[in-house]
Amino acid sequence: MHIVVVGAGIVGVSCALWLQRSGHEVTLVDRAGPASGTSHGNAGVLAAGAVIPVTTPGLLARAPRMLFSKDAPLFLKWGYLPKLLPFLRRYMSYANDAHVDRYGAAMSMLLHDTVAQHRALADGTDAARFISDEDYCFGYATRADFEADAYGWEKRRKAGYAFEVVEGKEYRAADPSYGPAFEVVVRCKNHGRISDPGGYVTALAGHFVDQGGVFDIRAVEDITLENSEIAALQTSKGEMRADKFVFAMGPWSKKIAHKLGVKVPFESERGYHIEFMNPSVMPKNPMMVASGKFVLTPMEGRLRAAGVIEFGGLENGPSRGPFDLLKRQVKQVLPDLEYDEAVEWMGHRPAPADSLPLIGANDVNGKSYNAFGHQHVGLTGGPKTGRIIADIINGKKPNVDLAPFDPMKYKSR
C-alpha cells in the first residue's frame, strides 16, 4: 500500500520505518523537518519506569500554590486561562488513585522494554550509536523529600520496576559531579539514554530515505472527508491521496483528530530546556532533580536541563520564568558549573486529559490512524508505537491491550 505518515518526530519516523520494513511504499510528511519539535528538545531519557502521571491524588490542592511560587515547576500563561478551563476540568478529574493504576498498567505495556525497542528500530543504522543503557536517577535534597514521594515509588515497586535507594554519599563515590546536593538518590534500573535526541531522529529519518522512503516537507492544512472517512490531505503544496494515513503530529494533532470524529480533550503542554555547551562538569547518568522536576542529561558536548510544565497554547511565545527557574535550580545542584554558552529552547508536548496516547484506527475501516499524545514519554514510547501501528495496518494483533489507547473511545463523546 501507499501510506502517508504525517509528522517526523520520533513517533512518526518510527511508524514510517516499521511500515517501510513491512513492504509498504511510505511517504513521510512534516512541515519543517525531522526532529524539529519535541523530539529535538526532550530530556533524552528512555524512561521505562515513567508509569506515574502528573495527575496524582492531591494535585488539585497543590496546584494553586505551585502556580504562585516562582520556585515551582508549574507555569501558566494567564491570558490563556479562559481557553484552558474546559480542559483543566477534565484533566483534574483524573487526579485520583484509580486512574493512576489504570494509567500505570497501560503505560507499563508500552514502555517497559523501551531500550530493546530502540535498539531494534536503530539496528543497522547510523542512529544506533546514540543509544546507551544507563540508570535513570532521581536526586532528593533531603530524606524527607524522598519520603514525600513514597506514593510514586510504591506504585513503581508494585508494578515490578527495579530501583535502588542509596545514600547521597554512596552515589557521590561513583559520580562526584553533584557534590553534597543530594541526601538520597534513587537509581532506576533497565533504563537508557539517547545522547543527542535531535541527531538520533534525524539519522533514523535519513535511513528511511536511504531505504527508498520519500520525505516531503509540506504543511498539512486540512483534510477532505468522504462518507465520514478521510479521502485526502490538503497541504501547502496541494492535495495528497494515499491508501492509508497515519497522524503523528504531536501537539498539532487536535484539529485533524476532531475533524475525524475523535473528540479527544487535548492541550499543548509547553516544555523548556537549557543546554550548557562544553560544560566543566559532566554527570554520568541522567538525573531528575526532584525539587524542580527537571532532568539533567549528559549529551554530546553539552549538558541539557529539561523539564517544567507550562500551559499556554501553541501560539504564545516562551515565558522567562521557566528559564530562570531552570538556571536557579542548576546553580543549586552544580554551583561550580562553567560553560561556553547557554542555549534556551521551548517546545510543545501533546497532552490528552487522561495522559494516555492515542494509538490505533480512527474508523472501523482503518483508513486513518492516530499515533500521538505521549505527553512526557514520546521518545520512550515512540519505537513501540510505530511497531504497533505497523502491526495493526498489516492485520497482525499486537501483544498489547490497546483499549486504553484506542482513538475510537472518544467517538461517542
From TrEMBL:
Keywords: Oxidoreductase. It holds the Pfam family DAO. It comes from the Bacteria. It is an enzyme of class 1 (oxidoreductase). GO terms for cellular component: cytoplasm. GO terms for molecular function: oxidoreductase activity. Signal peptide: none annotated. This is D-amino acid dehydrogenase small subunit. It comes from Planktotalea frisia.
